């Protein structure tokens, strides 16, 4: 089973790119972020025409998350991250699909730092960590997938010295990510590419994509049950080079039907080694 995450940066404006990628890559389940569309403007018909069911949590102009499936019904279990009833941002959606419980998320950017946006980012991260602990404690096959807006280590950012004052590379954000992994989650992409400079985002400015001046901020985290089934994890980097594309590229994992040789998850101490 192939499960992907993709920050589309505007689902309607970049719909041709999304549909082309879905048709060419054929993921079974997809988490989307930054829909930037209200609930009634989600392009459900176009996506259904490709054979995908969909649920989505829209918001006008900003945020927005969705889960797509071509391998069975999507049973929504949660819309919105628990812990703050006053937080109305469309940043989290959760569903059971084909025997996997998937939390699709779009973690706050947090810039400028310091300030209220950075404080919100850290509070949101704390809420995610609390909810993730409950999901992990269930013993179910669970995946957290999306745009985490954090580069966990120096290896995950081009020229890290230039990002020291950015909320995506702040010690507090990286420490929060390390705490999350420390619960027992496996960072799929880094586990299978332990020493590789592999990115998921390239800015539109300064010819970043052509120079491979990127960031790794889109992550797929697997519970132990799913980590035992992990056989591949890659970035569809070429999609970032398409015309009128998102500044992110899709990231995906392939899971076997049965457990494979157990892989050791990246330890929280390793993720936090460069903090």
TrEMBL record:
Positions marked as site (Transition state stabilizer): 149
Protein residues bound to Mg(2+): 7, 34, 147, 149, 247-248
Catalytic residues in the record: 106, 147 (proton donor/acceptor), 248 (proton acceptor)
Domain of life: Bacteria
Key word Ligase present: no
Keyword field: Hydrolase, Magnesium, Manganese, Metal-binding
Chain positions of site Interaction with DNA substrate: 248
InterPro entries in UniProt: AP_endonuc_1, AP_endonuclease_F1_BS, AP_endonuclease_F1_CS, Endo/exonu/phosph_ase_sf, Endo/exonuclease/phosphatase, ExoIII-like
Keyword Metal-binding: yes
TM annotation in the entry: none
NCBIfam families: exoDNase_III, xth
Cofactor note as given: Probably binds two magnesium or manganese ions per subunit.
A GO BP entry: DNA repair
Name under which the protein is recorded: Exodeoxyribonuclease III
Cofactor list: Mg(2+); Mn(2+)
Ranges where the Endonuclease/exonuclease/phosphatase domain occurs: 4-248
Highest classification ranks of the organism: Bacteria, Pseudomonadati, Pseudomonadota, Alphaproteobacteria, Sphingomonadales
Family assignment from sequence similarity: Belongs to the DNA repair enzymes AP/ExoA family.
Organism of derivation: Sphingobium amiense
GO MF term (any one): DNA binding
Entries under PANTHER family matching the protein: EXODEOXYRIBONUCLEASE III
CDD domains in the cross-refs: ExoIII-like_AP-endo
SUPFAM superfamilies for this protein: DNase I-like (SSF56219)
Important for catalytic activity, annotated site positions: 218
């Amino acid at each position: 089973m192939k499960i992907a995450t993709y920050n589309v940066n505007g689902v309607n404006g970049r719909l041709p790119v999304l549909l082309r990628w879905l048709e060419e890559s054929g993921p079974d389940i997809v988490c989307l972020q930054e829909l930037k569309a209200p609930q009634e403007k989600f392009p459900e018909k176009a996506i259904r025409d490709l054979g995908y069911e969909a649920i989505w949590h829209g918001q006008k102009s900003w945020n927005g998350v969705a889960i797509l499936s071509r391998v069975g019904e999507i049973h929504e279990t949660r819309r919105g991250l628990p812990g703050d009833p006053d937080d109305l941002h469309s940043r989290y959606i959760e569903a059971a699909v084909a025997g996997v419980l998937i939390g699709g998320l779009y973690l706050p950017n947090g810039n400028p730092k310091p300030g209220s946006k950075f404080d919100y980012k850290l509070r949101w991260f704390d809420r995610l960590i609390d909810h993730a602990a409950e999901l992990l404690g269930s013993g179910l096959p669970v995946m957290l997938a999306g745009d985490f807006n954090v580069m966990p280590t120096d290896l995950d950012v081009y020229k890290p010295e230039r990002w020291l004052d950015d909320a995506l590379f702040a010690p507090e954000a990286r420490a929060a990510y390390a705490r999350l992994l420390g619960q027992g989650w496996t960072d799929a992409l880094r586990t299978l590419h332990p020493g590789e400079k592999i990115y998921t985002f390239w800015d539109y400015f300064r010819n970043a994509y052509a120079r491979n001046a990127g960031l790794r901020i889109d992550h797929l985290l697997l519970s132990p049950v799913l980590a035992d089934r992990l056989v591949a994890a890659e970035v569809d980097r070429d999609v970032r080079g398409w015309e009128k594309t998102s500044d992110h590229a899709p990231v995906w994992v392939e899971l076997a039907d049965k457990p494979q040789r157990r892989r050791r998850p990246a330890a929280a101490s390793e993720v936090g080694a460069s903090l």
